[in-house]
Amino acid sequence: PAGSQVAPSIRLWSDFLSVPLHPKSVYVIRQYLHDGDCGCLEAFGQGESLLQDPACVEELEDRLHFYVEECDYLQGFQVLCDIHNGFSGVGAKVTELLHDEYSRKGILTWGLTPVLSAVGVSWIFFFFPQDPQNSFYRLMNTALGIAHLARHSSLFCPLSLSGSLGIK
């Protein structure tokens, strides 16, 4: 019908934002899409190994240089990184790359963790069940993430609405 709008297709988390992001600011990791063949990115080593691939590193550097070249006076970087899952490994390698390539610039890193529900069944509990294997992964990812991110950051700040960084 005339005047009707077709709903845009939703493929990525960034499609839910009310402000569209520049295409170069979103890098899709194909193996870990919801319909990918590897499942979820749950371990530090999985995230770290993603940036061992030369094609992935080259793509990341190209996107980074695109934005750096647009700066009149680059003062530093802010990195927001989930530290409770495999993205802690990705963030560790990204901050290492930034530290190596822009050693005279500041790197402020925020290590983010979600709040876990301890009571009943909620949407948070649904996504992060409290079984021993998941708790172990969360603990290891968080510990390795904090150690590696702090090593290559000017300032590392863990950030969570939970007093325990979501670790039991």
Automatic annotation (TrEMBL):
Gene Ontology BP annotations: mitochondrion organization
Stored Pfam families: Tubulin_3 (PF14881)
Keywords: Cytoplasm, Membrane, Transmembrane, Transmembrane helix
Membrane spanning residue stretches: 107-128
One GO CC annotation: mitochondrion
Principal cellular location given in the protein's record: cytoplasm
Highest taxon of source: Eukaryota
Family annotation (Gene3D superfamilies): Tubulin/FtsZ, GTPase domain
The protein, known as: MSTO1 protein
Organism, scientific name: Copsychus sechellarum
